[in-house]
Amino acid sequence: MTKRTTVLFSLAMLASIGSASIAQAQVSNPAKFTLFGGAGLPVGDAQDALKMGYTVGGALDLRAPLSPIGFRGELAYSGFDAKGLSGTGVSADLKDLGLNANLVYWLSSPTPVTPYLTAGPSWSHQTGTFEVDGQSDSDSDNVWGFNVGGGLQFALGGLGTRLDLRYRRLSKNGESFSVIPITFGVTF
């Protein structure tokens, strides 16, 4: 009987030490920074005019210890070239510098991979450039919209990483621009 009590007491102590270490790790770092990059896939009307582009950026996650809900602020830069202009002497592109302010909901998972859902408002400064025979012109505008998506957070070797898929829609004066960024990030 004493042996069983000693074993149970020892297991209880180990469990409490382990959970204290996990709690301390979460308390000690409620902020995470991520650098990310990947493809930008135009959809809807944008798909007819633009080729697949790129997206790069950074994110700051703020999450209270043991909470499944957090906040993510993102700064992203994307670039897209116009379709159907090769061989015409004409070139056009679109550059997009944007901010997202998202709520993030991390789902519980029995595996080391943690899925999450995210959504929030988006703001963007878009600049379109058009060049014909060496003469160029550009136009820029500020637009508002939203983004919604999800991803997977996981460790890759010793690195914290993230794979993210979003739908981002920006609108102004009845016109919209929609893109699906697919990015991979490294978290610090």
CATH A-level architecture = Beta Barrel
Query: Structural class given helices, strands, pairing?
Result: alpha+beta
How many separate domains?
A: 1
User: Helix-strand pattern, N to C?
Assistant: HEHEEEEEEE
Beta strands, count: 8
CATH topology: Porin
Cα-to-Cα separation, first versus last residue = 48 Å
**CATH class bucket:** Mainly Beta
C-alpha Rg (nearest Å): 23 Å
Strand order of the largest sheet: 1-2-3-4-5-6-7-8
Low-pLDDT ranges? 13-27
Mean pLDDT: 87
User: What general outline do the C-alpha atoms trace?
Assistant: elongated
Strand-residue fraction? over 45%
For the largest beta-sheet, the strand count, sense and barrel status come to: 8 strands, antiparallel, barrel
Tell me what you see in this structure:
With 188 residues, the chain is α+β, with helices and mostly antiparallel strands. The protein has helices at 2-28, 45-49, and strands at 31-43, 53-63, 69-81, 90-106, 114-132, 135-156, 159-172, 175-187. The chain has one domain (31-187): Beta Barrel (Porin). The protein is elongated, with a radius of gyration of 23 Å. It starts with a helix and ends with a strand. The model is unreliable at 13-27 (pLDDT under 50).
